[in-house]
């Protein structure tokens, strides 16, 4: 390729409309000299005649001018001088070779095209005038007989030069337009590239300024963008003996455990597998030095709605989780310390209420104290059960039980509360097959659902409990005509300590643990819990247990529940 570079430069000079005067002239002079050599082989005397030598002299002058003059510093019109001199030399040669004058006249097209390319329409005009004056006019003067055929024959060459010149000018005009549009497109592309690079730098600076890790990956999982915080997280997750680990080799564990997270369940891989998720907890780094992160992933769509990759965000929640664990330990300790004296208080209150000598007012005071102590004990028990369930330290005691029977006992226990509140409590309990259930825990879950339904249903309302068998599932529904809740509230309903706005604004007592605990109990049994509700139209809570999942639950008996 290097050897052909000089020839490529010469070729560009020959076809250039404005530059390369010397190169064009050398090309034409070489062509005419070669033509002269061929003539001398058979007609040596012809090239030694005065007109032919004059033609060679004019050619030499034109060549010297082309090689020595700095044409780029002169006005554009001076560029016509060299091709006009070439036309003079062609005219002199043609005048000698009358027998082959037509073929010799074609040589004039080379300088004519040159001028048309350099001066455009002015070049065409000069070429036509020069050809007419140097070739057409002399041929008419020497003609022995002039008629219309002779004139037409003589004018053929200038008309040919005119047509070819105009076609050349038109083609060059089109080429100039294309070059101009191409230059504009290149300028616009360069501006877009510079703008994209600027936006990329701005985006990188922005995401580098935040203290959460951000990584953007393409459809195959290759990194497209990563901020400074994420690079630190990646370095923490990289094993010491591996320079460029893949996803499965990174040090990622479930928080508080030594169990590595399977590759398909890791945040970036989940995002690559087209999952979107929130608050997925992982622990990153070597054992004993790990940092806990909450990760969230979202899919990226292009302008046509097609998937273009994913973005995953990692937020350090180590301090938050430690605070939560400290609070849980505190709540568990306080609850445990409260339960024993509360049980004793309730026992003594029950003994005091049995005294038949008490007056009505004192008896009423004891009833209120007993009821509130019972309520407080229930809260303490829920707090303790919640901590045990979250820690996974309680074993389920599974026995074959009918869900319909447990529901019947729960309804009977809630009946006094319903009568006192002026609410109709109904039950439609279809006999259900036996399932391996922890009766005490399921009773607690149903009690929480019924207690909530009764608390948030106004006087005169209804609460309906129903059990049924649907295909391979057992269903239990608690339907109330209470205050209901919005979709946003339903999404947070099973979160610990969460209470809806209506519950917070009302005077109804509650601590926000019951439903979270209920969900964990249901999930620990391999079941599901869902809610449907509309503000002012009541709520429906539904528990579902798979009949064909009984074997799985039986296998899980005696193991700590991992629900949550």
UniProtKB/TrEMBL annotation:
Record-linked PROSITE patterns: HIS_KIN
Keywords associated with the record: ATP-binding, Cell membrane, Kinase, Membrane, Nucleotide-binding, Phosphoprotein, Transferase, Transmembrane, Transmembrane helix, Two-component regulatory system
Compartmental location: Cell membrane
Top-rank taxon: Bacteria
Catalytic reaction(s) noted: ATP + protein L-histidine = ADP + protein N-phospho-L-histidine
Main subcellular location: membrane
Ranges annotated as spanning the membrane: 26-46, 52-69, 124-145, 151-175
Protein name (record): histidine kinase
Species of provenance: Brachybacterium saurashtrense
